[in-house]
Amino acid sequence: MIQIVSLAVIAVLTAADQLIKYFVLTYLKPIGEKLVIPGVLRFTYVENDGAMMGLFGGKAQVMMWITVVIIAVLLALLMLKKIRFGFNYCCLVAIIAGGIGNLIDRFRLGFVVDYIDVLFVKFYVFNFADCLVTVGAFLIIGYQIYEIIRETKGKKEKQNG
């Protein structure tokens, strides 16, 4: 049952990403950029033919197949119940949805549509799918660090107690 719910959440998040990108292609691409909050946020149309932060530019085919493999492995882990439901599981659902969103762009357009341009720090233009992947990955890493610290603290208390 949880697998069906997970697939539904992945589908909804992926659809949201693609809907946003439809509006970006329809309304933002012709004008290039739109200031939303001065000094904070601007929507800027960018065609990213590489990976995160423009790395591996011009390697869309390579990125496409790497993404396919990663998504397939993560989906298999979830569907075969190799990861129990919980925090990491939910983070993987977000990562998969973001990966699929950008993968659709690569297959359909040959590049990923980016549009979120944060102005208060010098950063790369990104999209909703990137947010899903990045936040999911950072939360998993943060949670793993927390668990390591908690386990280490528990072991020290047993040794001292």
Descriptive keywords:
161 residues, 64% helix, alpha+beta, three-stranded antiparallel β-sheet
In words, what does this structure look like?
The protein is α+β, with helices and mostly antiparallel strands and 161 residues long. The chain contains four helices and three strands; from the N terminus they run αββααβα. Strands 1-2-3 form a three-stranded antiparallel β-sheet. A hairpin with a 3-residue loop joins β1 and β2. The longest helix has 33 residues. The radius of gyration is 19 Å and the shape is globular. It starts with a helix and ends with a helix.
Low-confidence stretches: none
Look at the structure and give the mean pLDDT.
Answer: 91
SS element count, helices? 4
Distance between the first and last residues' Cα: 43 Å
The arrangement of helices and strands along the chain is HEEHHEH
Gross morphology: globular
Give a quick account of the main beta sheet: strands, pairing sense, barrel closure: 3 strands, antiparallel
Supply Rg.
Answer: 19 Å
Assign the structural class, choosing from mainly alpha, mainly beta, alpha/beta, alpha+beta, or little secondary structure: alpha+beta
Number of strands: 3
Strand content: 5-15%
Query: Residue share in helices?
Result: 55-70%
State the oligomer: single chain
